[in-house]
Design brief:
Length: 269
């Protein structure tokens, strides 16, 4: 267990706490979810699914590193590390995040200490060759993360996709995070659920200018047709939410029994 001195500034003085960083245990799981939800609640790019990502990584035995930060035996921060795949076949690279710190403890360097500890763990304890993440460059540059043009993520702006090789060899290819990261935000799930309920053979009329609809079209879950209508694509939806995809497929099967139409093949692709 790593113990680090930590200072918190108060109105008149500085209080010195001893912060500990250690691997998670079973008793930490619920509080990790609570911390993650609280940390991302007001974050501009938070989707309130980050805690679900951690749960799915854990369930899939893909939570390679899971560290918690404690002050006075209270868990106040967490960081997750999971494996990534690279199209050129390079192995032993990992993805960093989510990283969470309770709002009342933010701005004290706790997140930075978690990141440094996790990176050291990847490099020195499990023999990792590198790490990638999605985040603001002006913050993560301090940890030596940088943009490498030969390392890409198809769904993320290159400016925000950062890498940190631990060796001289930098891979070249498309990086994919664990499938646990393929989560739909609740607002997008609600839209899909509404479409399933209201679905008809020719599609559902939608406001194509709505950002949520646009994101679902970009992901390929919805397919735009004529007349400002969209159709659901269960095969693509299954990558994000297998349960909703099964419900969609059932709905389409029921509709096809009544409306035999070759156009159905378009939405089953």
């Amino acid at each position: 267990m790593l113990r680090l001195p930590l200072h918190f500034r108060c109105a008149k003085n500085t209080i010195r706490y001893l912060m500990k960083i250690k691997p998670e245990n079973k008793d930490d799981h619920d509080v990790i979810s609570e911390i993650t939800l609280a940390a991302f609640k007001d974050y501009p790019f938070g989707q309130q699914i980050e805690h679900l990502i951690i749960d799915e990584l854990r369930e899939a035995n893909a939570l390679t590193v899971s560290l918690v930060a404690l002050i006075n035996d209270q868990v106040i921060g967490h960081i997750a590390i999971s494996p990534v795949s690279i199209s050129d076949g390079t192995r032993d690279w990992y993805g960093l995040g989510p990283v969470s710190v309770l709002p009342e403890f933010q701005g004290q360097g706790i997140g930075s200490k978690l990141i440094k500890t996790a990176l050291s763990h990847i490099k020195n304890r499990i023999g990792g060759c590198g790490c990638v993440l999605v985040g603001p460059p002006n913050f993560f540059f301090m940890f030596s993360f940088a943009n490498y043009p030969q390392l890409l993520h198809e769904d993320i702006s290159q400016e925000l996709f950062l890498s940190l090789p631990f060796t001289k060899n930098v891979p070249s290819g498309i990086v994919k995070f664990h499938p646990a990261f393929m989560q739909l935000p609740e607002v997008e799930k609600d839209i899909v659920a509404d479409f399933i309920i209201n679905y008809v053979i020719a599609g559902v009329r939608a406001n194509l200018k709505k950002p949520t609809i646009q994101r679902l079209i970009e992901k390929g879950i919805l397919m735009e047709t004529s007349g400002n209508k969209v159709m659901l694509r269960p095969a693509i939806l299954a990558k994000y939410d297998p349960y909703l995809a099964k419900v969609t497929q059932f709905r389409l099967s029921e509709l096809s029994r009544v409306h035999k139409n070759p156009f159905m093949m378009a939405i089953k692709r």
